[in-house]
Design brief:
alpha/beta; binds iron/sulfur cluster; Alpha-Beta Plaits
Length: 290
């Protein structure tokens, strides 16, 4: 079983469109994992039939029982994050500020503070409309621990791949270089970086390549909107050559990307003569790289 993670550094490069098009042309070969849990959108394109829907708990936060609290103020005085406030009857915790360190629970003289696990989202197991099994998730608004949620989606996708005898897991990773991207890359076999020749696209490409180089995986690149800025496109090619990262595909700017997404379709469905063969070839090249 091999795992391919599609990442981008910068948002808006066409990462999800590329990932969805690959999933569409090879529906029987893979399991899809939507690890962009802060803003998941594969379900909008693939309209999955959900067969598993579970809450996801991660991390702890302090909760004060007002019936036990004597309002002594000790907890508020030691909280480094100023997460504990006082009203007339008792102290209470602002959950958005609490970091879950547990110090307040240790020092409360009347044991009024508990540290319950927090629900931070939901995890789903589904069958997409094309027949590809999909693991995906939704992070609650303002919730932390997106990295742990990504790890859960990845482990669920492996279980689906085993159950359905699929050889490949295609992961739609998050943009950026933060915790969810690190969790997406962990244990993967190949990182496919989708970039664009803009200043921010190029700088974020370098950052995400530096990050991925810390992992024991192969890398490959797709340049989208390659005709947008020939000078930066050339700099991207030189940088990829210097890093020994093959460029598997270059695509011109196309309105098909935004138009297909707005209709809830993959690029290949929207304009098969233009895209079908290109994405079939891209998949073959990815498999060769593996
Ligand atoms: S330390 Fe305990 S009793 Fe004192 S204010 Fe905090 S919660 Fe209330
Ligand atoms: S768990 Fe830590 S951060 Fe949260 S309220 Fe208690 S002392 Fe503050």
């Amino acid at each position: 079983m091999k795992e391919i993670v599609v990442i981008s550094g910068k948002g808006g490069t066409g990462k999800t469109s590329v990932c969805a098009a690959l999933a569409y042309v090879k529906p029987d070969e893979m399991v899809l994992a939507d690890c962009d849990v802060d803003a998941s959108d594969m379900h909008l394109i693939f309209q999955p039939k959900v067969h598993k829907d579970e809450p996801f708990f991660s991390g702890v936060k302090a909760v004060i029982d007002p019936a036990l609290c004597t309002n002594c103020g000790k907890c508020a005085s030691i909280c480094r994050f100023d997460a504990i406030r006082q009203d007339e009857a008792a102290h209470f915790v602002d959950l958005l500020d609490c970091e879950g360190c547990g110090y307040c629970a240790l020092i409360c003289p009347v044991n009024a503070i508990t540290m319950p696990k927090q629900k931070v989202g939901r995890v789903f197991g589904s069958d997409t409309r094309t027949g590809t099994p999909m693991a995906h998730a939704r992070l609650d608004i303002g919730a932390d621990n997106s990295g742990k949620l990504v790890a859960k989606v990845k482990s669920d996708s492996k279980a689906l791949a085993t159950k359905h005898s699929r050889d490949y897991i295609l992961v739609d990773g998050s943009p950026g270089i933060g915790c969810p991207v690190i969790a997406s890359l962990a244990g993967a076999d190949l990182a496919l970086v989708v970039t664009e020749p803009s200043i921010s696209g190029f700088e974020d490409l370098k950052r995400v390549c530096e990050l991925a180089s810390k992992f024991d995986l192969k890398m490959a690149c797709v340049i989208n909107k390659a005709d947008l800025n020939p000078k930066i496109a050339s700099e991207i090619r030189n940088t990829m050559k210097h890093r020994n990262i093959p460029i598997l595909m270059e695509l011109p700017y196309s309105n098909d990307f935004s138009e297909a997404i707005s209709l809830g379709k993959t690029l290949v469905e929207y304009n098969a003569p233009q895209w079908q063969a290109q994405f079939e070839r891209l998949w073959e090249k990815i498999i060769k790289e593996l």
